[in-house]
Amino acid sequence: MKADYINPFISATKNVLNQFISDIEFNHGEVKLENSQFSTTGVAAIVGISGDLEGRVILDMNIKTAKRIAGQMDGEQFEDLNEMAKACIQELANMMSGKATTTFRNKNNKLTINISPPSLLVGKDATIRDSVNTKLIKVPLKTNYGNLLINLGVKENK
Amino acid sequence: MGDEEHVLTLGRKTNGDPYKCIVVDDSAFMIKNLVRMLESFDAEVVDTAENGIEAVESVKEHVDDIDFVTLDITMPEKDGIEALEEMLEIEPDLNVVMVSAMGQEDTVKKCVMKGADHFIVKPFERDDVFEKLNKILGD
User: Fold this and answer.
1) For a tag on chain B, would you pick the N or C end, based on fewer CB atoms within 10 A?
2) What is the predicted ipTM?
């Protein structure tokens, strides 16, 4: 898997969040490759990717950050991570993945890429193990609303 | 999602009724967001649906009453493209605006070929949604 596959996902996450939260500021950390296992920090939105690229992307954050971001998206303050707050985070992951895969597709006309409806996993230190990929790319994204982590595992199907 | 300061209204039909619609999306957040936006345009949301099966049933029930449908593409049970085909079998002149997080050119073309009137990419701008609705309702 090429490390620069992560770039459209970083740009898309920033772009989508900026549309909902005008004063959000980003500072992304070092892009790292890791083994085929991922541990959640609290709320992980998982979007499957299929077609000429196959795998998944995970947008992970702690519950406090999820509530703050969902609150900004929905215009309400969330005391708990209720169903609407969860729906906000799922939709955030959906829009981020849609935008990123569209960027891939537009740069590579011959690629066919689809995404699945996002799933949400709530819980700390849950382990997600991938069978498709041997390496995963992760990038921490620090914001003034809390820290996010993008974790991408895809392979090319040719 | 854009500012809410300026008033945009779709106006009324010749009989004085507001334009009526069904909102379809598998995300409760997106349904809430769209309903809020469409009501701010003075449209009336007569029903919402969370998947393609519910959406087709809703169109069957409200076909004589609705002016347009906003239809998400990526949904469980039955996706928006399949639902679009079935909706247009029920009412070939139904106005359908497809809504998707994926703005891939081939997906847009596929929807238009199958009979969709417009395509909106999420996250959408309020002015863009208004402009597209205004166009299809004015045609």
Assistant:
1) C
2) 0.85
A9 Cβ contact partners less than 8 Å away, ≥ 6 residues apart: A57, A96, A97, A100, A150, A152
Q: Whole-angstrom Cα distance, residue A122 to residue A45?
A: 9
CB contact under 8 A, A95 and B1: no
pLDDT one-digit tens code per residue, B6-25:
788 998 888 889 999 999 99
- Angstroms from B16 CA to nearest CA on chain A: 32
| pTM, rounded to two decimals | 0.90
- Are B102 and A115 an interchain contact pair (Cβ–Cβ within 8 Å)? yes
Residue type, A47: V
Buried b (16+ CB within 10 A) or exposed e, A21-53: beeeeeebeebeeeeeebebbbbbbbbebeebb
In whole angstroms, what is the distance from residue A96 CA to residue A15 CA? 8
DSSP tag of B18: B
Residue A148: Cβ-neighbour burial (10 angstroms; 0-12, 13-18, 19+): buried
- Structure tokens belonging to residue A111: 């690629």
CA distance A49 to A105: 13
Within 8 A of A114 by CB-CB distance, chain B residues are: 102
As a whole number, mean pLDDT of residues A99-108 equals 86
Tokens standing for A46?
Answer: 């998982």
Tens digits of residue pLDDT in A33-68: 887 788 899 999 999 999 988 999 999 999 999 999
Determine the length of chain A. 158
CA distances from A60 to A21, A25, A85, A138 (A): 18, 18, 14, 10
Angle at A40 (CA atoms; ends A66, B122), nearest 5 degrees: 45
Average pLDDT over residues B130-136: 93
Contact (CB, 8 A) for A43 and A131: no
